[in-house]
Amino acid sequence: MKELFQNKYRVESRRAQWWDYGANSAYFITICTHERKCCFGEINCNIMKLSKVGQVAYKFWNEIPLHFSFVILDAFIVMPNHLHGILIINKNIDSPSVDARQCLVSKNQIDQSSVSTKILSHGQKRAQNQGRNTISSIVGSYKSVVSKKSHCINKNFKWQPRFYENIIRNSKSYNKIKEYISNNPINWKEDKLYKTLSDK
């Protein structure tokens, strides 16, 4: 993955509002459940144990490239009330992309086993990222199918309306984020999302 950061995917402007969120780059995505409810499972001995809804969230994240062929997945973790993942958009891949409005529904059964930040709401994403095949359309499709499938398990499951999106500017930030994702279960009790939950 190192070659992806030899200027090819680097953001020149510090003003994220100028950035095309369908452009080739690496993005750090965080999506939270509604009211930070722990719908996805629990941390046990520093290992994330997925609930059935957590398995749905895990499964469909891994299927994103099946429906958006220009997306490369990197580090990813489902936590009790949120998930983190790195999405890399590479539209130089020579294969047709799928309309972002299509739902990422799979016919397969679920297995039982320095950064620039923007916070986008459902309304904001339409204003800032119009068109297909943007980070907002990818995440929106993902959230939609996870909600649909999760409601068969837990009818009260909801996502937070917004998601957190970060443009990864260089390999140093990239490696730091990958390490953060990998260590998230170990550091769960120090996570601000854990503290938000415990303060309620």
What are the SSEs and their pairings?
Elements: E1 25-33, E2 41-44, E3 47-50, H1 52-62, H2 64-67, E4 71-78, E5 82-89, E6 115-120, H3 122-128, H4 135-150, E7 159-168, H5 171-183, H6 192-198
Antiparallel strand pairs: 1-5, 1-7, 2-3, 4-5, 6-7
Helix pairs in contact: 1-4
Major beta sheet summary: 5 strands, antiparallel
**Strand percentage:** 15-25%
CATH topology type:
Alpha-Beta Plaits
CATH class: Alpha Beta
Protein model, in words:
The chain is of the alpha+beta class and 200 residues long. It has one domain (2-198): Alpha-Beta Plaits, CATH 3.30.70. 29% of the residues lie in helices and 24% in strands. The protein is built from six helices and seven strands; from the N terminus they run βββααβββααβαα. The strands form two sheets. The protein has a five-stranded antiparallel β-sheet, sandwiched between helices. It has a two-stranded antiparallel ribbon with strand order 2-3. The radius of gyration is 16 Å and the shape is globular.
Q: What's the short story on this structure?
A:
The protein is α+β, with helices and mostly antiparallel strands and 200 residues long. The chain is built from 6 helices and 7 strands; from the N terminus they run βββααβββααβαα. The protein has one domain: 2-Layer Sandwich (Alpha-Beta Plaits), CATH 3.30.70.
Fill in the keyword field for this structure.
globular; two-stranded antiparallel ribbon; 29% helix; Alpha-Beta Plaits; 200 residues; five-stranded antiparallel beta sheet; alpha+beta
